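Same chain as my last thread, 391 residues:
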Amino acid sequence: MNRLPGKEDLKALSEARGEFCISIYMPTARKGVETLQGGVRLKNLLRQAEEKLLALGARAQDIPRLLDQARALADNYEFFQHQSDGLALFIRPDGSVQEFRVPLSFDDEVFVNSHFHLKPLMQVLTANGRFFILALSQKSVRLFEATRFSIQEIELPEGTPRSLAEAMRYDEIERHHHFSPGSQGRAAGGVDAFAGHGSDATDTEGMKERMRRFFDAVNRGVMERIAADSAPLVTAGLEYMHPLYRDANWYPHLIRDAGVYRAVDDLRHEELRDLAWPVVEPIFRREQEAVRERFNALKGTGLASSDLHEVVPAAMDGRVEALLIPVGKHRWGIFEPETRRVELRRDEIAAAGQDLIDLAAVRTFLTGGTVYTVGQNELPDGAPVAAVFRY
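reply #2:
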């Protein structure tokens, strides 16, 4: 599949159970001779999976049933000619394979457990944050939900203007006011770009009123979709459109001092996302730093912890509001739901493949908390995790 994983995918994978669930992560190449290494790399990882299966008690005669579909992918030349930067494979106990191709290069990793290992996907799904993009042009009005690695269009409600050209009868305005479609207008003046030369005050004021009504109508549709959210909203389009829309908007998380200032009609969705990302990235960095500061302020109060014996049960109960986790680090152990007991183990085999950081991260995300992936040296006091609790 070419689409990126979403929250529903993560939920379905997290609920899968079986004696042996196999998770494989690997880097891939989009083009060139490097694509030829994909099959070799996957075969090596499948050999590691076989070794772990045997160490965990799988019978040798059952392994082909588990791995044959994945081995067929390793031999499929065409499969590795259509990749992104990273590949995640989830092999179910019946041998069926679910795969995601993502624009994030993974380290080579293999996990065997009674459930899937999902923490590497958290970088695609969460911390780098969710945000909205409103793309405005003469031809279209479009709303998107995006993360650093994904973007999808949100359908606006019926009755929302779909086009500035249609709603404002742009051709008539251009003919009477000599406005050039390629012009960006003045950065702050906005509607003055439509006034043209020699227009009388009455006509200009009428056009301003029509423009105001148009952007009010656009904003009503946008707010119907996102008013209850708290993700940042970035505007994208020619420069004169930004102040016009901002005047109409009352969303508290609209970014008013920056945006994507260019024509957007010919941009692919991924290009639009990549242009908007530098606008929102500083916001997410500030949010992450605020979580770290809250953690430090709340230590010792019962509302923050870096102890997995406390964090894992809290995550399972939906009490974790924000969680900082290290990229590429594992803490092997066992969580017993009946007794709420956490037991750390020395290695993956002794823990039967269970990574407690993975367990806490997935449960936090699925219960509405925010997960931030950080470097190990960015965690307070070198802790395995840092959690802020809701209560």
